[in-house]
Specification:
The structure is a single chain. The protein has 223 residues and is an alpha/beta fold. The protein has one domain: P-loop containing nucleotide triphosphate hydrolases (Rossmann fold), CATH 3.40.50.300. The protein contains eight helices and seven strands, in the order E-H-E-H-H-H-E-H-E-H-E-E-H-E-H. Helix 1 (18-29) packs parallel to helix 8 (199-211) and helix 2 packs across helix 4. The longest helix is centred in the last third of the chain and has 24 residues, at 164-187. It comes from Scytalopus superciliaris. Belongs to the adenylate kinase family. Residues 126-161 form the Adenylate kinase active site lid domain.
């Protein structure tokens, strides 16, 4: 079991705790946590062709389109053909899922189902450090000093689409794009859905599932 490379994806709407679950899986099982947001930030700072293309969209306040995100992710995945990995934030659309199919076969897709009201509350209380993408939640994971990043001392910002009036539209948009992706992986028998309002309560079930696929390097209690 240990010799086979594990290729996994975590799907979930904004505010679902996807990043937290991915970090715990990476720690507990030794998988590379590959975040599309992180790679996009790096490509913006790298000065390459794809970064320049992404920047054009972001500067106009537009979503970075499929073909740009896909190029960023394919480049990164090509470098990691001999590693266990876990994708966070990709694929978000059917087009992205089909592009991923062309370079690898997924073993496992975890889908986080969190009630709409919980997502709305979490997103409205969310503030980020723009440089690193570090996320704080004023209700359960606040910074040490209000409005200031713990590590750099730089100011935090609330993203436009985390403001209460924008959240409902954003969640609807995610749901519409994600539905065919979820159906695709469900039809292949590799989709596992977890529902709840607290990441800590969902986590033991995720840990048990992963343990059946790859030997853990940390016990559940150590996380």
């Amino acid at each position: 079991m240990a010799s086979k490379l594990l290729r996994a994806v975590v799907l979930g709407p904004p505010g679902s705790g996807k990043g937290t679950v991915c970090e715990r899986i990476a720690r507990s099982f030794g998988l590379q946590h590959l975040s599309s947001g992180q790679f996009l930030r790096e490509s913006l700072g790298g000065g390459g062709e794809v970064g320049a293309l992404a920047k054009q969209y972001l500067e106009q306040g537009l979503l970075v389109p499929d073909h740009v995100i896909t190029r960023v992710m394919m480049t990164e995945l090509e470098k990691r053909q001999e590693q266990h990995w876990l994708l966070d934030g990709f694929p978000r659309t059917l087009g992205q899922a089909k592009a991923l199919d062309r370079i690898c076969e997924l073993d496992l897709v975890i889908s986080l189902n969190i009630p709409f009201e919980t997502l709305k509350d979490r997103l409205s209380a969310r503030w980020v450090h723009p440089g690193s993408g570090r996320v704080y939640n004023m209700d359960f994971n606040p910074p040490q000093v209000r409005g200031i990043d713990d590590l750099t001392g730089e100011p935090l910002v609330q993203r436009e689409d985390d403001r209460p009036e924008a959240v409902a539209a954003r969640l609807r948009k995610y749901k519409d794009a994600a539905k065919p992706v979820i159906e695709l992986y469900k039809s292949r028998g590799i989709l596992y859905s977890f529902s709840g309002t607290e990441t800590n309560k969902i986590w033991p079930y995720v840990y048990t599932l992963l343990s059946s696929k790859i030997p853990p390097i940390l016990s559940d209690e150590e996380n």
